[in-house]
């Protein structure tokens, strides 16, 4: 069936993309495939197959690899097509790529940062509404003509 072949091609392409990304990250960190496999708790042959695009890792395996590479699991999920990429943010990127803090600390910082952004957006909307009412841009209720 052509649909099954297309699906297989998409899965193979996604596996290849995440594999090459993991390999690039591993090489940038100057870690051997054997060291990464040991640190991630996966077998050396399995990691090799992932890097070559022959296997598509589960979210749990990606999480283990992310911890071993000291990168955000979210980055690997996006690369693997498991998660939609978020809006680009220099603050977010800096937190995600920081190797001095743990994954849990990164997540807490990102949660706090997101809550600040949401609070600021809500305040800006409220201020815009107040300014519109004050300027008379918002129609008021029509006076009643009942007498």
The figure for the number of domains is 2
CATH class of the largest domain equals Mainly Alpha
Question: Architecture of the largest domain, according to CATH?
Answer: Orthogonal Bundle
| Mass-distribution shape | elongated
SSE string, helix = H, strand = E?
HHHHHHH
Query: What gap, in angstroms, lies between the N and C termini?
Result: 75 Å
CATH topology of the largest domain: 434 Repressor (Amino-terminal Domain)
Helix content: over 70%
Radius of gyration: 24 Å
> Number of DSSP strands?
0
- What do the pLDDT scores average to? 82
Low-confidence stretches: 7-14
CATH superfamily of the largest domain, called what? lambda repressor-like DNA-binding domains
> What's the tally of helices?
7
Major pleated sheet = none
- Class derived from helix and strand content: mainly alpha
Q: Give the amount of beta strand, in percent.
A: under 5%
List keywords for this structure.
about 150 residues, 434 Repressor (Amino-terminal Domain), 2 domains, 7 helices, elongated, single chain, mainly alpha
Topology (elements, then pairings):
Layout: H1 2-28, H2 33-40, H3 44-51, H4 59-69, H5 73-80, H6 90-97, H7 103-135
Helix pairs in contact: 2-3, 2-4, 4-5
Structure overview:
- By secondary structure, the chain is mostly helical.
- It has 2 domains: 1-85, lambda repressor-like DNA-binding domains (434 Repressor (Amino-terminal Domain), Orthogonal Bundle), CATH 1.10.260.40; 87-137.
- The chain contains 7 helices and no strands.
- The protein has helices at residues 2-28, 33-40, 44-51, 59-69, 73-80, 90-97, 103-135.
- Helix 2 packs across helix 3 and helix 2 (33-40) crosses helix 4 (59-69).
- The chain starts with a helix and ends in a 12-residue tail after the last helix.
């Amino acid at each position: 069936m052509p649909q099954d072949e297309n699906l297989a091609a998409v899965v193979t392409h996604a596996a290849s993309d995440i594999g090459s990304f993991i390999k690039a990250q591993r090489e940038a960190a100057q870690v051997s495939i054997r060291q990464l496999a040991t640190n991630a708790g996966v077998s050396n042959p399995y990691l090799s197959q992932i890097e070559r695009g022959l296997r598509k890792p589960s979210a749990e395996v990606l999480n283990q690899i992310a911890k071993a590479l000291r990168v955000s699991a979210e980055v690997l999920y996006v690369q693997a097509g498991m998660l939609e990429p978020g809006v680009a943010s220099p603050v977010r990127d800096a937190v995600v790529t920081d190797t001095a803090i743990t994954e849990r600390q990164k997540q807490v910082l990102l949660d706090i940062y997101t809550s600040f952004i949401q609070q600021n957006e809500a305040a800006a909307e409220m201020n815009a509404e107040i300014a519109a009412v004050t300027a008379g841009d918002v129609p008021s209720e029509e006076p009643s003509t009942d007498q």
